[in-house]
Amino acid sequence: MKKTAQLLLLVVVVGAAAGCRSHYVLKLTNGRTVDAYSRPVIKDNAYVFKDGQGHDASIPPGRVLSIDRH
Q: Nearest CA to 69 among 20, 2, 31?
């Protein structure tokens, strides 16, 4: 019984950790979309976030129509 409980706990922890990674989609005024793999925040008059390769990226707020979490 103890092994079953440990296995169940492991499955829950791994599932929760996998589900925690979400990304954001920024819809731009020109119709394009940009994927962000960290929460976009305003810094120095631009949305700053991590791109798919883990690099810092930024977009001026006037070019962003919406930000959706996926």
A: 20
Task: Give the CATH number of the domain where residue 57 resides.
Answer: 2.30.30.100
| Residue for token pair 């950790």 | 17
pTM of the model: 0.68
What single DSSP character describes residue 53?
Answer: T
Angle at 28 between CA 33 and CA 67, to 5 degrees: 75
Determine, yes or no, domain membership for 64: yes
Q: Please, which pLDDT band fits residue 16 given cuts at 50, 70 and 90?
A: very low
Q: Which residue has the tokens 């990304």?
A: 23
Phi and psi of 18, rounded to 5°?
A: -70, -35
What is the number of structural domains in the chain? 1
